[in-house]
Write a structure and sequence with these properties.
It is built from one helix and 33 strands. The protein has 402 residues and is mainly beta. A hairpin with a 2-residue loop joins strand 32 and strand 33.
Length: 402
């Protein structure tokens, strides 16, 4: 009897060890191609990125990644902008309108879903920036400025160049309480040189719009990024970094012999951070003393960070561009690359998955991804290119894969 009980205990232990081990878990990881990055001020250690992989979450504590895509209801896979709220993450897409991401249910609700193009009814506004407030959500797009109800997500009003806006392409928005400050620029088309662009001031009470330009030719006022420091608006306006005095309503240049072609400008409590080119032609991150308007320091960054996005918290600064994410301490600007390569599949369209006892097979656009399950705690991945087209279904038949 004791011998039978002993054998049963051994078998039970063996059964538990075989079936209680963590199994390979399929994730809808995708290419990064980050376009916007934001530190989460409400959840410690989280970074949110909008890119061609949808909405991507990086946990700096566990060094882990997770992507949220059309599988969770994102209106279009190409993320363009991201804003972190206490209860929701707001995501703008490239030609797919805007989305609100529910952190609790991990599902998207889309809004701003209408087309301005009779020739392309599937096209939705490209959302470059979202600023949620208690009364209204302000959305800057490639077709003007929209106000949206924060509860119903219904579009209330929209303002374009015909309503006095500097340009229909709104790239950046600052809300100082009374006014919205908009960075606008020419976004493309057949008219060259462009005849609009600049800094627009929008009165939230009266809807009155005033436009301010620095360069004599309107099309030269190519403003892409702005930052507010109480009395001044800092403007990354190619080819110079500009300061707009709110009281005098006048522009002035700053560090014009140092920074050329500024792309992005962000303010924290003490400094201003700007991405642009230096005299050597390389891209640098510049740290600027806000009060003295002088350069503190700069560091060279990779050349592919053209148009990159940066975000800062109390101690660190993060940058995203293409498929790379970098982080550096503010105390010593020495950027380290975060490892994204091991976490993302080669293509963002993966619709099918199947498997047997040895492998999982994922069907993507132009690729089959094979995941070997040789060890319970690791996965070996191999990407096999196939014919052109998106794989919609996979089945395993002995030695063959259909």
């Amino acid at each position: 009897m004791k011998k039978c009980i002993f054998i049963l205990l051994i078998l039970s232990g063996l059964f538990y060890s075989l079936y209680s081990q963590p199994k390979p878990e399929w994730r809808n990881y995708v290419a990064l191609a980050g376009r916007s990055i934001a530190v989460d001020p409400f959840r410690d250690g989280l970074i949110w990125i909008a890119g061609s992989g949808g909405l991507i979450r990086y946990d700096s504590h566990s060094n882990s990644w997770r992507s949220f895509t059309t599988a969770e209801g994102l209106s279009k896979i190409w993320g363009r902008s991201v804003f972190v709220g206490e209860d929701y993450i707001w995501v703008g897409t490239e030609g797919g309108g805007a989305n609100i991401f529910d952190l609790k249910n991990e599902r998207f609700t889309s809004f701003l879903q209408f087309s301005f193009s009779p020739a392309n009814p599937e096209y939705r506004p490209t959302v470059n920036v979202i600023i949620p407030g208690s009364d209204l959500i302000w959305v800057g797009t490639d077709y003007g400025l929209f106000s949206v109800d924060p509860i119903s997500l219904d579009t209330l009003q929209w303002f374009t160049k015909e309503d006095g806006l500097g340009d229909n392409y709104v790239y950046s928005i600052i809300d100082d309480g009374r006014y919205l400050w908009l960075a606008t620029a020419f976004g493309g088309g057949y008219i060259w040189p462009p005849d609009t662009g600049g800094l627009s001031r929008f009165n939230k009470s009266t809807n009155e719009i005033h436009n301010f330009t620095f360069w004599e030719r309107p099309g030269d006022n190519w403003f892409r990024s702005i930052a507010d420091t109480d009395d001044n608006i800092w403007v990354a306006g190619s080819p110079r970094l500009l300061i707009f005095d709110k009281e005098t309503e006048l522009f002035s240049t700053v560090l014009e012999d140092v920074i050329y072609g500024p792309q992005t400008v962000v303010a924290d409590e003490e400094d201003l951070w700007c991405i642009g080119r230096w005299q050597d032609g390389k891209y640098h991150l510049f740290r600027i003393d806000r009060s003295r308007k002088t350069l503190k320091e700069s560091v060279t960054i990779p050349s592919f960070f053209y148009g990159a996005s940066i975000t800062v918290d109390a101690s660190d600064i993060y940058m995203v561009g293409d498929n790379q994410v970098y982080v550096s301490s503010k105390d010593v600007l020495d950027f380290a690359k975060l490892d994204t390569d091991a976490h993302f599949l080669p293509d963002r369209f993966c619709h099918a998955v199947s498997g047997d006892n040895q492998r999982l097979y994922a069907g993507c656009a132009d690729f089959i991804v094979m995941i070997d399950k040789e060890e319970p705690l690791s996965m070996k991945m191999k990407n096999v290119p196939v014919m052109n087209g998106s794989i919609r279904g996979i089945t395993v038949d002995g030695d063959n894969l259909w």
